[in-house]
Amino acid sequence: xxxxxxxxxxxxxxxxxxxxxxxxxxxxxxxxxxxxxxxxxxxxxxxxxxxxxxxxxxxxxxxxxxxxxxxxxxxxxxxxxxxxxxxxxxxxxxxxxxxxxxxxxxxxxxxxxxxxxxxxxxxxxxxxxxxxxxxxxxxxxxxxxxxxxxxxxxxxxxxxxxxxxxxxxxxxxxxxxxxxxxxxxxxxxxxxxxxxxxxxxxxxxxxxxxxxxxxxxxxxxxxxxxxxxxxxxxxxxxxxxxxxxxxxxxxxxxxxxxxxxxxxxxxxxxxxxxxxxxxxxxxxxxxxxxxxxxxxxxxxxxxxxxxxxxxxxxxxxxxxxxxxxxxxxxxxxx
Length: 334
Ligand SMILES: [Zn+2]
Ligand SMILES: [Zn+2]
What we know:
By secondary structure, the chain is α+β, with helices and mostly antiparallel strands. It contains eight helices and 22 strands. Strands 13, 14, 15, 16, 17 and 19 form a six-stranded mixed sheet that branches. Strands 1-22 form a two-stranded antiparallel sheet. The chain has a two-stranded antiparallel sheet with strand order 2-3. Strand 20 (282-283) and strand 21 form a beta hairpin. The longest helix has 14 residues, at 314-327. The protein is globular, with a radius of gyration of 20 Å.
């Protein structure tokens, strides 16, 4: 499949672009946040991931016969969910391999890593923005435990599909929200610890801390901004999903950056998605490069995000994803 980028400002011809947006006069673009909900949905609908793109990017699918989620294998991803007898894990920080104990617990292991390595595409090597060390080195931070992203396969049974619309007047349908989660490391890989849902006007409609199901290995506070103390106000994942379902159904358009990670952590199957990591990806003949939200915010919006010493904010990230849509520069055409 060849994917080409077509500039929306070009005259729309042919069948490659959804007719739902064809009535939009690009010379008088109205800010998205000023559009009425129904119109907003129509303008954004063509940016949705296709079924093929959902698969390519590892979004969860629902297997009705097995009554569980299925995660497509992507080119770069290792398996996120493994069988109960597969105790091998790879540390998400230092990349070392190790084994869990047979009961799923973990012995301490020296984890030495750099916490802010960034890939330099020009020099084709990591830049160590954490400590600015010039050459290769094992790390500038040492922790007592490794961390990992892999969860047990039986977690796939805990997934839910977002609820269907309750008739044609369901107010949740055709709504657009930015969604972002902060994730922490537990004995069952990455679990959600905070969920934020923001509407197109930048208003936070839901922001809640979520209790992990398994023992926490690391709150990943430098990045997640979540601390053990936040858990005093946390609700269960089940309660969190019920709160989410007050605003979203299967027809709600969710906007996020690499939203497949958030949906996997929420144990949720949802296919009405705009993914800014895909929308703004750089496609080369042999490789597709996804830019971080921080890089996109800087390059496209001139905005500095994820810079706080106390970690990221899922509200800030959600708002940034929605702001990126205001650019409406490209549409991916299969
Ligand atoms: Zn490690
Ligand atoms: Zn470092």
